[in-house]
């Protein structure tokens, strides 16, 4: 039981150098890889793994390997089982430490925080598109590599491999719905935790530790954790109260940290786009996103360059006096997304089972101008047709309205996103619902008619370019 006692195991091809850290389920060591010659970090499970757990350990490493080529996700090189039965995974070594240590004596200004936020939201979007939920984003899981870049690490390994209730989140960084369920999480909870981490980059503390420091007092350990959990569940999100932080930046963080999951950003990609627009407006530049298949900048980002310049003149640029400067990687993807997403983001398919519902609420963010938002908010939809023959009628007693439609090209995994439409036409802020049926029965809207819009969603999350719209007139 070498790893159980904290003694590093012998791993062929690697020479032990020093211990780097320890968590609840694993130790992390620095090894020298013999060929190719380089330093690597190796995470070793504290307990031996039975055959099923060992299989999950390897599968997790393979899954992580699919996204570790992203410039802001820690690279995975190898995984295996030691002679003593301990699982291990070989990672890229990040000599700059992590942001928990960084924030003990440093802070980022708003511009710097937006740069880091765009990079990390890009990484998170890449993970979510592969069905990977992090579940424990926090400053200690944001590492700093050789070039000073932030690296998202430790993608929920404790929660998915060891499977114990409660493992996979840290109270200070977890959203209310995860604390209420004592575990789990989905894309929305990851967005919250990223928002909390970015909040700390400005303040040095998680949002509720920052805002309720007097109530927490000098409590420690389990008592502090229980008190903080209760505060997060019952008290309002604190304000920054920082005159040096522009209102646009605080608005973005508050949206990501909303207590209601449905009112947060509906994807980490959209989170990144909003930070780009704020950075351009406030500071006259924007950090590119790095999401495969998506353009690095929103369309029309520079359309109001004059207004942006005026804003930059009003809000002085802060000097980049970073203790550990974070490099910006200008690696742009060469795809162009030319289709507008009219009213909904598609919920990514591999959500945590604890949040599985028969119908999922979806809504298009309404925080930006629609002309600026729609081109880059779209998931590519050119190959997905619109539904046909959408029609509705009131029931005989007028208490419900039935709508039906036809899928012109049915495929396995198809679903449909629908929402009510007002008299003025398509509502970009409409609340939507997904269904796998080609008919729905709903309560009538106020007024003389009830109108809905319906879009076809493929299993790979591609969506029809334009929703079909139809109205049923009250008899």
Automatic annotation (TrEMBL):
<keyword id="KW-0723">Serine/threonine-protein kinase</keyword>
<keyword id="KW-0808">Transferase</keyword>
<keyword id="KW-0418">Kinase</keyword>
<dbReference type="InterPro" id="IPR011009">
    <property type="entry name" value="Kinase-like_dom_sf"/>
</dbReference>
<keyword id="KW-0547">Nucleotide-binding</keyword>
<keyword id="KW-0067">ATP-binding</keyword>
<protein>
    <recommendedName>
        <fullName>non-specific serine/threonine protein kinase</fullName>
        <ecNumber>2.7.11.1</ecNumber>
    </recommendedName>
</protein>
<feature type="transmembrane region" description="Helical">
    <location>
        <begin position="326"/>
        <end position="348"/>
    </location>
</feature>
<dbReference type="Pfam" id="PF00069">
    <property type="entry name" value="Pkinase"/>
</dbReference>
<dbReference type="GO" id="GO:0016301">
    <property type="term" value="F:kinase activity"/>
</dbReference>
<keyword id="KW-1133">Transmembrane helix</keyword>
<feature type="domain" description="Protein kinase">
    <location>
        <begin position="14"/>
        <end position="283"/>
    </location>
</feature>
<keyword id="KW-0812">Transmembrane</keyword>
<feature type="compositionally biased region" description="Polar residues">
    <location>
        <begin position="375"/>
        <end position="384"/>
    </location>
</feature>
<feature type="region of interest" description="Disordered">
    <location>
        <begin position="356"/>
        <end position="384"/>
    </location>
</feature>
<dbReference type="InterPro" id="IPR000719">
    <property type="entry name" value="Prot_kinase_dom"/>
</dbReference>
<keyword id="KW-0472">Membrane</keyword>
<dbReference type="InterPro" id="IPR008271">
    <property type="entry name" value="Ser/Thr_kinase_AS"/>
</dbReference>
């Amino acid at each position: 039981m070498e790893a159980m006692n904290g003694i590093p195991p012998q791993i062929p091809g690697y020479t032990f150098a020093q211990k780097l850290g320890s968590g609840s389920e694993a130790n992390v060591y620095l090894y020298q890889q013999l060929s190719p010659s380089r330093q690597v970090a190796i995470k070793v499970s504290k307990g031996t793994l039975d055959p099923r757990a060992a299989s999950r350990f390897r599968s997790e490493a393979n899954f992580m390997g699919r996204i570790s080529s992203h410039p802001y996700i820690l690279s995975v090189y190898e995984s295996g089982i030691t002679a003593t039965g301990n699982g291990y995974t070989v990672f890229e070594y990040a000599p700059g430490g992590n942001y928990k240590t960084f924030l003990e004596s440093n802070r980022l200004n708003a511009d710097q925080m937006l740069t880091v936020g765009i990079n990390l939201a890009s990484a998170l979007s890449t993970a979510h598109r592969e069905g990977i939920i992090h579940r424990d984003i926090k400053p200690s899981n944001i590492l700093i590599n050789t070039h000073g870049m932030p690296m998202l690490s430790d993608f929920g390994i404790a929660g998915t491999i060891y499977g114990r209730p409660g493992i996979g989140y840290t109270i200070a960084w977890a959203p209310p719905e995860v604390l209420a369920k004592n575990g789990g999480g989905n894309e929305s909870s990851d967005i919250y935790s990223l928002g909390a981490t970015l909040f700390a980059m400005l303040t040095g503390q998680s949002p509720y530790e920052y805002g309720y420091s007097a109530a927490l007092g000098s409590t420690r350990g389990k008592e502090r954790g229980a008190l903080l959990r209760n505060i997060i569940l019952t008290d309002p999100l604190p304000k920054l109260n920082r005159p040096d932080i522009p209102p646009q930046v605080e608005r973005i963080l508050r949206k990501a940290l909303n207590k209601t999951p449905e009112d947060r950003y509906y994807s980490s990609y959209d989170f990144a786009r909003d930070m780009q627009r704020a950075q351009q407006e406030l500071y006259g530049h924007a950090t590119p996103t790095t999401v495969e298949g998506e353009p690095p900048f929103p369309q029309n980002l520079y359309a109001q360059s004059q207004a942006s310049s005026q804003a930059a003149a009003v809000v002085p640029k802060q000097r980049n006096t970073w203790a550990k400067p974070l490099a910006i990687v200008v690696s742009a993807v060469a795809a162009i997304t030319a289709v507008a997403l009219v009213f909904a983001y598609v919920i990514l398919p591999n959500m945590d089972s604890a949040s599985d519902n028969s119908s999922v609420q979806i809504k298009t963010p309404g925080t930006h101008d629609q002309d600026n938002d729609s081109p880059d908010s779209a998931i590519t939809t050119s190959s997905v047709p619109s539904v046909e023959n959408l029609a509705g009628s009131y029931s005989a007693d007028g208490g419900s309205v039935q709508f039906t439609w036809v899928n012109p090209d049915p495929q396995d995994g198809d679903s449909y996103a629908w929402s009510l439409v007002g008299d003025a036409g398509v509502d970009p802020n409409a609340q939507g619902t997904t269904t796998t049926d080609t008919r729905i029965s709903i309560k009538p809207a106020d007024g003389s008619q009830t109108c809905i819009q319906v879009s076809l969603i493929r299993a790979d999350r591609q969506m029809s370019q334009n929703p079909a719209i139809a109205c049923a007139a009250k008899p």
